[in-house]
Amino acid sequence: MSDYFLFVGLPYAALAIMLIGTILRYMNKGFTVSSLSTQFLEGKKLFWGSQSFHWGMMFLFFGHLIAFLFPKSVIAFNGDPVRLIILESTAFMFGLLSLFGIILLVIRRKNNKRVQIVTSKMDKVVFITLLVQIISGVWIAYFHRYGSTWFATSLTPYLWSIFAFNPDISVISTMPLAVKIHVISAFAIIGIIPFSRYMHFLVYPIAYIWRPYQKVIWNWDKNTIRIPDKWVKGVRSKNN
Amino acid sequence: MRTKTILTLLLFGFLFHTNSSAQDGESLFSSCAACHTIGGGKLVGPDLAGVLERRSEDEIIRYVQNPADFDVIMMPPQNLTNAEIKAILNYIVSKSPAEGQVEEVVEVEEVVVALDDVKSGEMLFEGTTRFENGGPSCIACHNVDYEQMMQGGLLAADLTDVYSRSGGMVGIKGILTGLPFPAMKSAYGNYPITEDELVQLQAFLKHVDDNKIYQHHGEKKTMFLHFGMIGFITILILIFFLWFDKKKGGVKDDIYNRQIKSI
């Protein structure tokens, strides 16, 4: 019965909350959709933590997405043992990268006073869910290995059964504990998207990729502005 | 308020939505038949003829729903309701041979396998040749202690001694065709293993079992971990080179730190 609650009830609750919550938040409190950068307060640990975490996460997210959308192709790719090892090691590498990143970010949150002050309760929830998610993921990769294939063969049908409104939990209920924790915390993360900084991945500024770069410069001569004769009366801006 | 009501209704609708329907014992027993017979002797699991004389119904129901409580790891927990298990038991009772009837004893013959089949089975197990119907290679979830092959997966049971553990050729065939484990059913249900492939896998698994005492254990166990670590460090170095000239602190950091120090 608890399996029904965790692997049928929780996913639907989480997906519904995510869908409705994000729309409501975006429509009613659009300006709060942000992950409130703290780069201004502390930059060095953020650089290493954030870079490693986000690169790792991005590859892992799309890896999971590909295995979910194209399970047959993943099984075909993993058919050859050499390719299987290459894919597994690569995924493991990005898992370690994310783990390293999130640990640095947690340490930074905990030890830096300026960052502490802007840390909300929801941020702590975000960090705890992420730690659970990444540690269980790396654990699975190492102790229940070749997840890239068995995800495609056994978990993809479960996930599809959720989306087809015909949930089948026979496989997931026989999976090892780490896999269950990974799935439960994944849906928990989806459920708290509208209430937390997770929101920012839905509004990722993709236009950055093709937007021409902007260089911010002061358009005046550094020497001439020091000569008092050249001073001009400024124009007060109208929008401030 | 209305949104909330609709949401709650939707959620409860999903929570109580179940797709199980009452089925008769015979069709339900087909998933048991991979490992159990009724009066046909031991297969992977014990013969179920007259099981109700040996155990109480309540005990069987608890056992079937969670064999791990009884320290049994070979049998997966079955997602069956009490009523469904009772239907299966009724079927077993109806099929059990009458009291005093002589049971056929299955004689286990000495099996000899062809080396060609062993080699083909190894390639199928490892994935060098793909299954004809597109099923995943065994190595994704299973490991065998066989030095010619890379380390296998650790999700499912180790198959080194599956041949002797699950009742020889018949047992392996039962599992591979009956697919009693949900994860295997989901992997091979739509992509069944062909007859030829089955023979080759049986041969390979017997060969592995026969030769398990001759295996050497090298360093390949940690190969996957090492690759991951090397890759991780490489990426960190790449991040260092690509972004190290980035601004890493506020402009006032120096002033702030100086003042904090002087307090």
Describe the structure.
The complex is a heterodimer of chains A (240) and B (263). Chain A is an all-alpha fold and 240 residues long. Chain A has a single domain (2-212), classed as Fumarate Reductase Cytochrome B subunit (Up-down Bundle). Helix content of chain A is 64%, strand content 0%. Chain A has helices at residues 2-28, 44-69, 71-78, 81-111, 113-117, 121-143, 147-163, 177-192. In chain A, α3 (71-78) packs antiparallel against α7 (147-163). Chain B is mainly alpha-helical. Chain B has three domains: 2-95, Cytochrome Bc1 Complex, Chain D, domain 2 (Orthogonal Bundle), CATH 1.10.760; 115-214, Cytochrome Bc1 Complex, Chain D, domain 2 (Orthogonal Bundle); 229-262. Chain B has helices at 2-15, 25-29, 51-54, 57-65, 82-95, 115-126, 162-165, 168-178, 182-188, 195-210, 223-243, 253-262. The longest helix of chain B is centred in the C-terminal third of the chain and has 21 residues, at 223-243. In chain B, 29% of the residues are buried. Residues 14-22 of chain B have low confidence and may be disordered. At the A-B interface, α1, α2, α3, α4 and α7 of A face α1, α9 and α11 of B.
